[in-house]
Specification:
mainly beta; six-stranded antiparallel β-sheet; six-stranded mixed β-sheet; 10 helices; 57 strands
């Protein structure tokens, strides 16, 4: 809204007048006080005659007076006339040499003062500044309760600061008038920085806002009960020097969420998962023959074999790691990461995003890994210090996000994608913008690339991705950072019997319009509609959505526009409620079997029989479960199961499917994985084919098919390498924002064959048929859920292989995510 510049030193404290017309600032050094006319954005008055830094300014409730503190020992009282502060009184209060905070009482009659060099708190008369009371602070012997505040009703005085008891920083509370201590309330693990009474009506009986250096802020009610608390998001990577531990290839990193490596976890880049502590990982090496490095921990004067290692003025060394061969070492400091040879000659230095609390070197000599004060762990190339990868583990011990400087990322889920992004400056007189990773997911969500970033060919894989998709830093430097704005036309709360209609208007802000995307949030958000390519002709869009049946309880629908670079803009929210009856559900089946391929070398024996038998068995057993019944199974065999045939059959089937329905897709034939990416081979598959004709049902096509499937979708794969599809489903599960219940059960792991030749079927299909035909153990719940199907089929495959006398291991694999829906009745 407005920028006030030209100040001679740092701002230590800001205060609004009760009427919000005036804004006052206490400044560092001896620069004193400034008062501004907030509406006009100009200075209305000042007092620069201060003998030290000022940490507090406060307006009286009647808007006519100001009180400030200063480390010159004085408390100053001003009368305010049209924004001009006129000094009326000064006092050097007893109790301390450095008054820190001063606050008017709610009735304006008293002023409380806290000190930065004393355990005392003093109460002054607000007209004369004479001392009125000395609240009892006996027992405060190891700190300074320098932050003071009055309760909103004026019945209590409160104070907190550096004082601690058993590691906790309490809040002192006194009864006004008798000034006796009423309670000590433990609040934080670190210094209490500020206290403020909440405005009337914010809580039924008044309350207090507090902030501390943990970091934490929160709200107390009038009785001192905590009603809200928000803790910091960062892992505390400070320690002694051995907390950050690595595997030899640095793909596994151990760190502590709490100081000194406490509450440790291990992040595995290959599996992209947080696990429990692993003591076998290697700590940083801090000693080596011929290298005596002293003063590397928390000093400004590190040395090598008695010779100083020069740092910048006030730069403090924090961490050390010596290479396995003893020929190099790395220092982490307040501001830099520095690599030296064994003679102490610096080979490179890199600016860092926070204090380098911890540093380690990979056993293979390729990477420097550092833990920083901003809560990130970052991998740097040992050769030149260039950052290649970063990890932010959120302090909730669940969420994390990892990314490369080029913008490619992986995350623990959609709720973690807001943890990282890019701040875009728009000039001094405009607010900046923040583009989160979520807004870039169309191109830059690349979990496979993140897992392989530290591979020997990681640079080549990254270069290939940049050539195809671009570097996010260049993307956001131009017009591509300008995202369209969406505005809902009409009401933001809509109703419909079986579907709702939403209309929006889109405004291009310079980056073009690349389409719209709608999300159904329950509570996490799943894309609902495809992206429309190109600009929207009339800048408006209207869409109707059938929703899963849930009368009276509203759904949240969000809509956003993408620019031409497919960067998503801000989302707008609509609450949608169905008023009609819940629609009955149905089951749909698409079964594909290919054995007589167009290419003779791909011939199989039993795939067509597998598709026919499984579709018939599921249809027969599922009818009692679905009120709308089972639609006629779509079975494609051989020539019918070309790539175009499969996609056309799915498109026709999709028109009959309602959101609450269940879909089973069965694929029997050849499957293969290249670079861990799965492809189902349709009838017309031709290796090396250019263009759609002859291509396979690859990962991209499967993902598109799943995105258009109902939330309850079961994919059954009787093919080799089915485990490759499992990995794809895992990624899709995250891409679909964990709203879907998509499940996959496959005949084989990645790299395994799926065997044929058991009673006229493939082994996996034979096992499925056995399980479907089994009777329930009791009548309490005869529904066969996908979770049970996964377990029972795996057991049955093992039995069949034993019956065949075959020593070949075939392992059923699968991924169920949040899926637990029933498929048939037993």
């Amino acid at each position: 809204l407005r920028r006030l510049g030209g100040l001679p030193n740092v701002i230590n404290h800001l205060a609004w007048s009760p009427g919000s017309r005036w804004l006052a600032a206490s400044l560092g050094a001896n620069n004193g006080l400034r008062v501004y006319d907030a509406a006009r954005g100009i200075e209305s008055g000042r007092d620069a005659d201060y003998g030290g830094k000022s940490y507090s300014v406060h307006f009286s409730p009647d808007d006519n007076r100001l009180v400030t503190t200063c480390y010159d020992g004085l408390v100053r009282l001003y009368v305010l006339e049209e924004g001009q502060p006129h000094l009326r009184k000064t006092v050097r209060p007893a109790g301390g040499q450095r008054p820190y905070a001063a606050r008017f009482s709610p009735d304006g009659r008293l002023i409380a003062v806290g000190f930065a060099d004393s355990s005392a708190v003093r109460v002054l008369d607000s007209q004369t500044l004479s001392e009125v009371a000395r609240p009892d602070s006996a027992g405060v012997g190891n700190g300074n309760p320098y932050s003071v505040a009055w309760s909103a009703d004026g019945r209590h005085l409160l104070a907190g600061g550096r004082w601690q008891v058993n590691g906790k920083h309490p809040l002192l509370r006194w009864r006004v008038a008798d000034w006796g201590p009423e309670a000590d309330l433990p609040l934080s693990d670190n210094t209490l920085m500020d206290l403020a009474p909440l405005p009337d009506g914010s809580l039924p009986d008044g309350g207090l806002l507090f902030a501390a250096q943990d970091p934490v802020w929160g709200v107390l009610d009038r009785e001192g009960r905590e009603v809200l608390r928000r803790a910091g998001a960062l892992a505390d990577l400070r320690g002694r020097g051995d907390e950050l531990r690595l595997s030899a290839d640095s793909r596994r990193v151990r760190f502590g969420y709490q100081e000194w490596g406490q509450d440790a976890r291990v992040f595995d880049l290959a599996t992209r998962a947080l696990g429990t502590d692993a003591p076998e990982l290697a700590a940083a090496r801090t000693e080596a023959p011929g290298l005596k490095i002293a003063g590397w921990k928390n000093t400004t004067a590190p040395s090598l074999n008695g010779r100083p290692l020069p740092l910048k003025p006030y730069e403090r060394s924090r961490s050390l790691a010596i290479a396995a061969d003893g020929r190099h070492f790395v220092l982490g400091t307040e501001w830099l990461l520095r690599r030296y040879d064994r003679d102490g000659d610096e080979q490179w230095q890199k600016l860092v995003p926070g204090v380098a609390w911890a540093v380690n070197l990979s056993g293979d000599g390729r990477f420097v890994v550092a833990g920083y004060g901003d809560g990130t762990i970052r991998w740097h190339r040992f050769s030149d210090g260039q950052e290649v990868l970063a990890l932010f583990p959120h302090a909730d011990r669940k969420r994390w996000i990892a990314w490369t400087p080029e913008g490619f990322y992986a995350a623990s889920g959609p709720d973690a994608e807001e943890l990282m992004g890019y701040h875009l400056n728009r000039g001094k007189d405009q607010a900046g913008e923040f583009v989160s990773a979520r807004q870039l997911r169309e191109h830059y969500y690349q979990p496979g690339l993140i897992s392989r970033r530290l591979d020997a060919d990681g640079d080549k894989l990254l270069a290939k991705a940049v050539a195809k998709l671009g570097d996010v830093r260049k993307l956001l430097a131009g017009a591509a950072s300008r995202t369209p704005l969406v505005k809902v036309v009409g009401k933001t709360e809509v109703q419909g019997e079986e579907e709702v209609t939403i209309s929006v208007k889109v405004t291009d802000r310079g980056g073009g319009i690349g389409g719209l995307v709608y999300y159904l949030c329950d509570p996490e958000c799943q894309p609902m509609a495809g992206r429309q390519a190109g600009a929207i002709a009339d800048a408006t869009d209207s869409r109707s959505f059938p929703l899963p049946g849930r009368p009276t309880q509203p759904y949240r629908i969000e809509v956003a526009a993408l620019n031409r670079a497919l960067v998503e803009g801000p989302r707008q929210r609509v609450l949608a409620t169905l008023t009609g009856p819940v629609s009955d559900t149905a089951l749909h089946i698409l079964a594909v079997g290919v054995e007589n391929y167009r290419s003779p070398g791909l011939k199989l024996k039993h795939s067509v029989a597998d598709a026919r038998a499984l579709a018939a068995e599921i249809a027969a057993k599922a009818r009692p479960l679905f009120k709308r019944g089972v639609s006629a199974p779509v079975v494609l065999q051989d020539q019918e199961a070309s790539l175009a045939g499969i996609e056309q059959a799915f498109a026709e089937l999709k028109r009959r499917i309602k959101p609450a329905d269940t879909l089973v897709i069965f694929l029997a034939g050849h499957g293969e994985a290249s670079n861990d990416r799965y492809t189902f081979l349709p009838w017309d598959f031709k290796r090396g084919a250019a263009g759609p004709a002859g291509e396979g049902l690859n990962e991209a096509r499967l993902r598109k098919l799943l995105e258009q499937s109902p939330s309850k979708t079961l994919l059954l794969l009787d093919t080799c390498d089915a485990g490759g599809a499992v990995e794809m489903i895992k990624d899709s599960y995250v891409r679909l924002y964990r709203m879907s219940q998509h499940a996959v059960i496959g005949a084989s792991r990645l790299g395994q064959f799926a065997q044929e030749g058991y009673q006229g079927h493939g082994v996996f299909t034979a096992a499925l048929l056995r399980v479907l035909k089994q009777q329930a153990d009791d009548d309490t719940d005869r529904r066969l859920r996908v979770t049970e199907l996964r377990v029972d089929v795996e057991k049955e495959v093992r039995r069949i292989i034993r019956e065949m006398g075959n020593n070949y291991l075939q392992s059923v694999t699968g991924f169920l995510g949040s899926a637990d829906f029933p498929v048939v009745m037993r």
